[in-house]
Amino acid sequence: MKFTIQLLIENADSLPLSISLETIERPCDAVEDVGLRLEETKAILRRLQDEVVRSQLARHLERHRACFHCNRLRGIKGYHSLSLRTAFGDIAVRSPRWNRCACEAASAKTSFSPLNALLTAHTTPELEYLQAKWAAHLSFSAVANLLQEIIKQLQRVKWFLWHGNVMQADDTLSALIDDVDGARAEDGKAARPTMLVLKKLSRALEEFGAYIQNNASGIVNYGERYRCGERISTGLVESTIKCGSTC
Fold this sequence. Notes:
By secondary structure, this protein is of the alpha+beta class.
C-alpha cells in the first residue's frame, strides 16, 4: 500500500500548486506496519513547515518589492542567509537585501532587508512559548530523563549504521544534538548554570556526527551481508559504533 502526502498551495491570483511532501509505502502484515512511525511524522512536519514558511516569505517578498510611491521594482543588492527557529525545526532562508528607490526618503538607509523587517525575532512565538514552559519545569530529573531518551536514540543510530543507513543515522543524531542544545539554551534563558554533562554530551555528539560523515563512504549494509552469508570486515562500523558508545 502506498500513501502520498501532498500540500496544496492556493493564491487568489495564481493557479494552485501541489507539492509532494512524503510518500510512504509498506505492507500491513504485522503490528509494526500499522500507522505512521515517529521519524516519518517528524519528517513530514519538518517538510510541511519548510514549504509553508518558504511559500509565505516568497509571497511577502513578491508583494512588497515594488516601491510604494512609484511602483517600480527595487533593485537587489545581494543576499544573506537567515535562520528561522520554529517548533518543527530550524529553516535556513535566502534573504535578499533591496536597494531603496530614489523616490523614497533620502534620510533612510540606501538598502534594507525586507525579511528582517518582517521577522522581528528569528524564533517563532510558539517555539518561544514552548521553550519558556520547558525552562520553567526543567529540573535535574528532567535532564536525567532526557539522557535516558538520548541513550535509546543512540541505540537506534547504531542499528542504522549496522544496516548501512548512514542518512537515517545522521538525521537521528542531528535531532539528538538539537534536543541537547535546546536544553542548554533553556538553561541560559532561565539564567541557570549550564549542566556540565549537557555541555560535554553536545560536544561528543557533534564529534560523533562528524566521524560518521567522514567515514560514510565506507559504511555498508553489514546486516544484509551477514544474512547472505558473505564474509564481512566490520572494523570500520565497529569503530564507528565504539565512537558512539564512548560519546
